[in-house]
Amino acid sequence: MSYFFKVYLNSLAEDRKTNVSDKMKQLTPDDQRLNLLFIYAGGDDLFISGGWNEIVEFAFDIYQSFRTYTGNNEYITLSGGISIDDIKFPLYQAAKTSGEAEDAAKGNGRDSLGLFGQVFKWNEWLGIETINSLDIDVKKYLDSEAKPNLFGIFPFVERLEQQDIGVNYSRNFVRNLLITAQIQEQALEKFKENKKSVEALGTRYYLHLPKIAYTLARLPQYVLKDNDFRTSLKNPYNAPYFRAIATWIELLNRR
């Protein structure tokens, strides 16, 4: 394990094209070198600084490489946290906030990533294993629902990047998606405070439908012709991911 963190990760950062598999999910072309600064890497721990988008990309490189390195052993897990801060933010404080994100990830049953103030399993971020990453109670409640072709967070970000819908459309999409996420979060908090039943809590997976229909109606027609994107965004399995999707797209628009 020490070899992976001390040696392999440096090679991965320096030469992605040689070390990144074609099957790995990525937004940045593998022939583009990431500008990263390794503060510490050893044992089973590391601390890296760099541009937020490159850190996120490298985090997914690390996880997918780690799964291959460990033979996809389900008992060997990896958790991480990413803090996105201003360029003048003290490094020692960034270490603290990223550590807090990592702690939140470890509190999510491990093998998770804390990013954008959200915590999900790596497979939910990447959309690698549809549905299998979800909580048993959630899968039981939504069992009658058709499984979406696009699942998780990365697939939606990647699809919108490919569609190149333009800044104005993208901003409207982000704003409406964040409003939808807020509606869900407020309703869930209210249900918990009132100690509603499991069935009532389950309605949070459907609260998004009216707002999502409104959001989709304001996208370009060529995007709406993408049936996988349209139907998957409305699918209740993807309801928990709206804030993360919107935040990621919003930050990409600032580049």
UniProtKB/TrEMBL annotation:
Gene3D superfamilies: 3.30.70.270. It holds the Pfam family Cas10-Cmr2_palm2. GO terms for molecular function: nucleotide binding. One of its GO terms (biological process) is defense response to virus. It comes from the Bacteria. Residues 174-201 form a coiled coil. PANTHER family: CRISPR SYSTEM SINGLE-STRAND-SPECIFIC DEOXYRIBONUCLEASE CAS10/CSM1 (SUBTYPE III-A), CRISPR SYSTEM SINGLE-STRAND-SPECIFIC DEOXYRIBONUCLEASE CAS10_CSM1 (SUBTYPE III-A). This is GGDEF domain-containing protein.
